[in-house]
Structure formats: structure tokens, C-alpha cells
Amino acid sequence: MPAAGWCITDEYMAATAVMTLRIDPGLLAALKQRAKHEGRSVSAEVVRLIRTAVEPTPLARPKRARTMGMFSDLEAPELVEFKCLRGQFSASLVSKRQRRRRSA
Known about the structure:
Elements: H1 11-14, H2 25-38, H3 42-54, H4 79-103
């Protein structure tokens, strides 16, 4: 029975499942040492190790293309970024043209 005043009320723990695990005592000792070194509980360290082993690794971003000429020290934008900037620039030009027509 838990000590007086001690209870588990954390929302994270309420939303997780419990799993019993048989583990070699030497491996458990190494796990405890690693968890202590990382500043985590043994449970949190086990979850982190399993998560890194199970979740897919993010794909590395390809190196951006270099530009040429007077902009050779700059990187070329990716297509999505270019389309977004082009749309913003076009909208800016349209609004400037409309303001000129109103003032003329």
C-alpha cells in the first residue's frame, strides 16, 4: 500500500498501459545505471529506448542546391518555399497596382 499522501494522479500515467517484463538482473542493473545517468526513471528510460527503436527515423533533408552568378553564396529555396514566396510577392504587386489605380 502506498505511503500516506502518495498517489499516482499524473494524466500521462493514467493514459498508459502496464507491462510486466522478465529481465536478466545484470541487464536491469545496467538499465538502472543508465537511467540514473540520464536523469530518468527506469520506466521512462525503457520507454525512451523502445520508442527510439520502434519509431521510424526522420529522413535527412537533402542538401540544398547552390545558386550561381552574383548569388553564388546563397542557397536556392526548395520548391514549396519558392511557391510560397512567389505567391506573397505576387499578392504584394497586385495590391500596389490597385492602390496606384485608386490614387490616379
